[in-house]
Structures are given as structure tokens and as C-alpha cells.
């Protein structure tokens, strides 16, 4: 992965372990928001990405590239593939049960991805330091050990839950009763 210093963990970064009470290894991870472009069941043309965690610290996910995900004819749009990387990385940092947003996302495109391809994604955390999380993901064609089509590295920044209410409205809170914004 070609990456900048911004997405490279500093020497003091700590790689997190599984969270006590977090999702059990092997358990499916549901959508974080029903109308999310990446994972929402109610999004008409979204990725409808489905995911599990094999170990409580990484995420494995899949989606099928559809007609509405094209850029060049018959091929996935690069921005859609970046969105898939963003989504699976977001799912992986949520395993640690603190809200984060993407600060920077870097993407390498290695192979074209035709419509109809099942893309197998994996994301993991390389380290955390203060509010910053350094994460990585890859997407493989056709199977979990298929050829790598996309790689990504990201810097995510921890925010308060009020970030989503202040900038996006109440909808996220309605779907996340585990949080109270004004306890
Ligand atoms: C989206 C999820 C919503 C749901 C949340 C609810 C529950 C969660 C449940 C499930 C989640 C599961 C899955 C999620 C799946 C997908 C997630 C997709 C994620 C996204 O798609 S999310 C949308 C795109 N994203 C944004 O919409 C961010 C816009 N942005 C901002 O809102 C601010 O910009 C913010 C908050 C980032 C920082 O603002 P701030 O004022 O809090 O802090 P500040 O600026 O001081 O930055 C602190 C330190 O980070 C460094 N830093 C910041 N940004 C940097 C950058 N770009 N490059 C290099 N360094 C950067 C500074 O340099 C400083 O570093 P230092 O401390 O060393 O000085």
C-alpha cells in the first residue's frame, strides 16, 4: 500500500485488542444506519454490504458490484470502491465502540472490478493514538483469497456522538439507543 505519513501510525500508537462485551468472534455486524449508502438495508442503490468480525478486532465484508455502481461502462466507479473501503474501515473502528469519522482516506486501485463481481473486503486497525485511529483495508475479487483489486489506508478521528446530531440531525440517534447525547 502506498501511503502518506498522515495514515502511518506514529511510534506511540497502540494496536487495540478485542473490547470486553464487544461483538463475539464470528458474529454478524448489522447496519449502523438503515439508509447508509454502504450498509443500509433501505438504501435503494447502496452497496448493501454485509459484514462479520472473525476476532473482535477486524472486519470481513462482501458486496456485489451492481449496475448503479458503474463508472466506465461495465466497471465499478472508483469513488464507489473508495466508499466500500470507507465503510468497512468505519465498521472495523466501531468494534471499539467509540464514534469516529474519516479524516483522510487513501486508495490504491490495482485491478478493474467488473459489474457482477463479488468483492471480499477486510479491514483492520494498525494503531490508535489520542483521538486518531490508523486503519487499513483491502478488497479482493471473487473470494477471500482472490486477487487484490483495491487497497486503502485511513486516518479516522474520534468525535462525540453529538457530532452526528449537530451536523446531521436526530436520525442516527433514533437508531442508536445505546447513546444518549445529553445524559
Ligand atoms: C458515519 C457513522 C455515523 C454513525 C455513528 C453512530 C454510531 C456508530 C455506529 C456504527 C459505525 C459503523 C460503521 C461506520 C461506517 C462507515 C463510516 C463512514 C465514515 C465516514 O464517512 S464519516 C464522513 C466523512 N468525514 C467527515 O465528514 C469528517 C469531516 N471533518 C470533521 O468533522 C472534522 O474535521 C474532524 C472531526 C475530523 C476534526 O475536527 P476537530 O475540530 O474535532 O479536531 P481537529 O481539527 O483539531 O483535529 C484533531 C486532530 O486530527 C487531525 N486531523 C483532522 N483531520 C485531518 C486530516 N484530514 N488529515 C490529517 N490530520 C487531520 C488534526 O490535525 C488534529 O491533530 P493534532 O491533535 O495532532 O493537532
TrEMBL record:
Region (Disordered) residue spans: 1-27
InterPro entries: HotDog_dom_sf, THEM4/THEM5_acyl-CoA_thioest, Thioestr_dom
Predominant location category: membrane
Record's subcellular location: Cell projection, Ruffle membrane; Cytoplasm; Membrane
Database matches in Gene3D superfamilies: Hotdog Thioesterase
Catalysed reactions listed for this entry: (5Z,8Z,11Z,14Z)-eicosatetraenoyl-CoA + H2O = (5Z,8Z,11Z,14Z)-eicosatetraenoate + CoA + H(+); tetradecanoyl-CoA + H2O = tetradecanoate + CoA + H(+); dodecanoyl-CoA + H2O = dodecanoate + CoA + H(+); octanoyl-CoA + H2O = octanoate + CoA + H(+)
Keywords: Apoptosis, Cell membrane, Cell projection, Cytoplasm, Fatty acid metabolism, Hydrolase, Lipid metabolism, Membrane, Transit peptide
Pro residues bias: start-end ranges: 8-27
Membrane topology of this protein: Peripheral membrane protein
Keyword flag Kinase: no
EC class: hydrolase
Residues of the Thioesterase domain: 74-140
Sequence intervals crossing the membrane: none
EC annotation from Swiss-Prot or TrEMBL: 3.1.2.2
Family statement: Belongs to the THEM4/THEM5 thioesterase family.
Listed name of the protein: Acyl-coenzyme A thioesterase THEM4
